[in-house]
Amino acid sequence: MNGFFAPARQTALHRANPALKLPLFIVLFILTMLTHTIDGSFYLACVFVLLLFMASGYPLWKTALLISGFALAFASASLTMVLFGRGSEIWWSWGPIVISQESFYRGLHLGFRSIAFGCQGLLFVLTTSSTGLFYALMQRFKLNPKYAYSFMASIRLLPMTLEELRIRRDALAIRGTGGSTRSRALLRLPERYALPLLAQSIRRAQRTAAAMEVKRFDADRRRTYYYSSPITSADWLVLLLLALAVTAAICLAQELPVFRLGDMRTGL
Amino acid sequence: MMRWIAEVEGAEHKRAAGEVPPLPSRPKDAAAMNTAVEIRRPEAMTAAEQVLRSTAVRQPADRDHEAAEDAAAHVQVLELNEALLRPQEPEPSEIAAEVIGLRLKFPGVPDLLFRDLSLSIRQGEKVLLLGPSGCGKSTLLQVLGGVIPRVTEVPLKAERLKVPESAGMVFQDPDTQFCMPYVDEELAFVLENLTVPREEMRPRIEAALREVGLNLPDIHVPIGSLSQGMKQRLALASALLLAPDTLLLDEPSALLDPEGRSAIWTAVRRVSERRTVIVVEHRIDEVLDWMDRVIVFRDDGSVLADGSAAEVFSRYRGKLREYGIWYPGAWDDALWGAAAAPVSAEEAPRQERRSEVLAAEGWHLPDRTAAPEIGALEPGAARGGDGLAQSAAAASAMCESELRAGRSDRPKAQSEAAPPAAGGAFDEPLLRLERFRVLRGGREVCAVEQAAVMPGDLIALTGPNGAGKSSLLLGLMGLLPRQGVCQFGAAFPASRREERQTAAKHAAFVFQNPEFQFVTNRVQDEVAFTLRGEAEEAALTAAQAGGASWKRRLTRRVATLSPADRRRRARLAAEMEQEAARRASACLESFGLGGYEDRHPYLLSLGQKRRLSVASAVVTHKPLLLLDEPTFGQDAQNAFAILRLCEELRAAGHAVLMITHEPEIAERLATQVWRIEEGRLTSAKPTGRSRMDGILLSKGGEAE
User: What is the pLDDT of residue B377?
Assistant: First the structure.
C-alpha cells in the first residue's frame, strides 16, 4: 500500500509548504464551485487532468489508474441530472425519464466539475504527506499538537486494524455459520466484526497514548520541530503554476468555447 | 468524588525554567515536590509554582547587582545556584524511588490493589519484579515511573511517594509505542517534547540508535519495516533520549522471538550501567544474572519475598512455578515433574474426572501415570485398557521408517479403538501434501514438495518471521488459493468450495489472538456454536446423499410441511440443542472452564480465553489441530496448560501442527520439526520422539 503511493519523482508541488498549499487548493475548490459555464468547467477539468499527469510525480499508468475512478464520479454526477433534470426542449422521454437539452448539458457540466474537483483533491493528496501537513499546520497555523499527533498516530494504527479485519474474516470463515441460516448470519455480521476490532483498537489507542505521555508529550508546552516549515521558491512556483492553470482554463473557455452555452443556472 | 492526585514530577520546574533535562535539580526542591503527595491537583500546582518562583528569582537578581537590598537574597540565590550546578554523585545509598504506605484502587474494582505497600529502591539498583498475572506489578511500575497518576488518573494514596527525577519506560507491545511513521520522526518526537533545537536532533538520534545497537543505514525508514525486536530496541532508544536516570521495563521481551529477546536484553544491559533499572518480566533467563534484587509479589499485591536472585530462587522455586514465571529450568520441571511428582491428593479426582469426561466424549487418553520418558517406552509400561496404549506398546518396537512406510502388522481390529476422528488406521496419514503451493495475491508464498502428518504427530513449524508459516496454515485451511495435492484422510474434494469444507471438517484452526475467534456472547455458546455447525453440516450431507437436489428439497419443504411435521422438526431441533449443550458443558469441564458457562468470552482471563478457543475448535473431534503460536506472550502456567492440551490430543491419536518460536517445544515435545525458510519447506525431520509416546507434561503447571 505504502509502496504504491510513493511518488516516483519530487515535483515543486511536493516541495511546497503544505500550509500554503492547503489554502491555495481551497481557493481552487471555491473557484471551481463558482464556475457556471459549461465551457469553463470543461476546460478546468481538462487542465487539471493534464496537471495531475504532469505534476503529481507518479508514473503515467498509476495516474491513469487513479483517474479512472473519476469516470464513475462523472457518470454518477451527470447521469441523475441528465435523466431526471427539468428542461423545455425534450429530446427523449420514457416514463419518468426525460432527457431534455438543458438537463443534458447541465448533467455534463456537473460531471466536468466533479472531475475538476476530484483532480484538484487528488493532486493535493498525492503531493502532500500527512506528516508534512501536520507539521506545517502546527507551525504556521498554531494547530494544537494534541490533535496533530493523535492524527498521525491514528494513521499508524490503520494498517494494523486492516490486518486484524483480515484475520477476523478468516476466523469467521473457519468457524462457519454455526447452524444458523445464511441470512441470520448476515444480519449478525456487523456485530461480529465490530466487537473484536473495536476492543483491540481501544486497547491499542490507550497504550499508544500512554507511551506518548511517557515520552513527556505535553500539548500545552512550547516545543521544537524536527521538520521546519519554510517558504521557499517552490511555493511561489506552485502559486504561479496553479494561477497559470486557472487562467489558461478561463482564457480557453473565452477564446475556444466548445459548447457555446451561457450560465447553466439560468437556462442556456 | 474525592480523588488524590499525587504531583510528584520534579520535571515541572525544569520545564518552566526552559532548561533541557537532565539537569541535577536541587535535592531540597525535589523533596518538597515529591512530598507534596495526597493533595489535589490545584494545590499541587500551587506548591509547584511556589517552588518555581523561588527558582525564577535568580535571574533578575543576577542582572541587578547594585541593588543593595537584594544582597542577602543574592547570596542565597548563589548558594542555590551552586547546589544546582554541583554534579550529583551517584551515591549507592541514595534512594531512586520509594513508596511508603501505597494504596491504590482501580475504579469499578471492589478491592484495593495495594494495601499499604512500602518499597524503596536505591540509585543504580537493578530490580526485578515478579508475581502472578494480575498482582499489580505493571501498575506498581507505572506508579514508580510517574505514569500513574500523572498520565493515567487512578485513585491513589501514599504516605510518601518519591519517583525518579526522570524515567524512561519501555512497554510490552512493540506496535503501540510509536506515534510517527518513521524511525527518525519517532525519536525526534521525544526531542521535540524536550524542546531540543532542530540542529541537535539528528546527532542525538543517531547516537541513541547506536547505543541500542540499531545500526540502520538510513534513519528515515518506516517503523513498520522493522522486526518486532528492532521495534523494541527503538522504544528503548526513545526512552534513552529522555536521558533518564531510571529505566522501567514492562515485559519488553514478552512478544518477541528468541533472537529479538536476546537483542533487547543485550541492549538494555549495555545502557543500564549507571542507571537504576526496574524490570517486570515473566521470562527471566536473560535477566536474572545481572539483577541485584528480586521482589516477588503475592496474588493480593503484597510482597512475598525480597532479596538477591539466588536467595529468592532457592527458597521460592515452587511459588515461581505456580505464578507462571519462566525461570531457568521451568521446562525441566514441567516435563520431568510429570514422571517424578506424584499426583497430589486434590489433583487426582480432577484428573479422573477429566479422563472420564474425555472417554465419554470419545477421546481415549492413556493413563497419565503411565506417561513414559522419551525413548524409554517399554511394552510393559503402557498399561491400561484402551486400544491406544496397546497399540502404542505394539508399535514401540517399530522404527520410525517402518511406521512411515505403513508396514504395521497391528491387527486391524485395534484400529477401531482409535478415536473415530482419526479415521481408522493409525498409520494412514491424516494429511498428505505433494507439490503444495500457497499463493497470496498471485504470488507463491509457501511451497511444500512432500510432507505428511500422521496421527499422533506433534509438529513444530519453525522458521524466521515472514517466511510463510502462517500462509501455509491458511493455505491448508483453504483460506488462501493453492495448488498441488493437499489431501485430508481419504477425501477428494472437487471444487475450491469443497476443498475448504473438507479442510474445515478435518482440521481445526486456533488463531494467535483468541478473541478473534469468538463469535458468541457466552462461553458455552462458543463451544455449542461449533457443534451446531457440525450438526447442520451432517444434515446437509445426509440430504445430499439422499439424492435430493437443492430445488426439490426446497419445494418439498414448502409443500409438505404439515403441522405434525413441523412439531416433529421442532422436537428434533430441541433435542439437538440439548445434546449440543450437554456436549459443550462436558467439553468446557474437561478444559477446566466448568463454572464459566455464562460468562462473556471477553471477560475470561488470558489463559482461559486461549483454552476456550482450543475447546471450541476441537470439540467436534477434528483429527488435525493447527495452532498459530499458541504459547506466544503467555506466562509459563498458561503455556504449559495449552501444551498439555496438545499433548493429550496428540496421545489420543489426533495430530497437532503448531507454529512456534519456542526452541523447547521443537526439541522436547515435537515428533517432527518442519522448518520453513523463504517461502519453502526446507526440512521436515522427525525428532526421535515416537508418535505413540505418552503425555509428557505434568499437570502442575496448569492454570485455573
Answer: 34
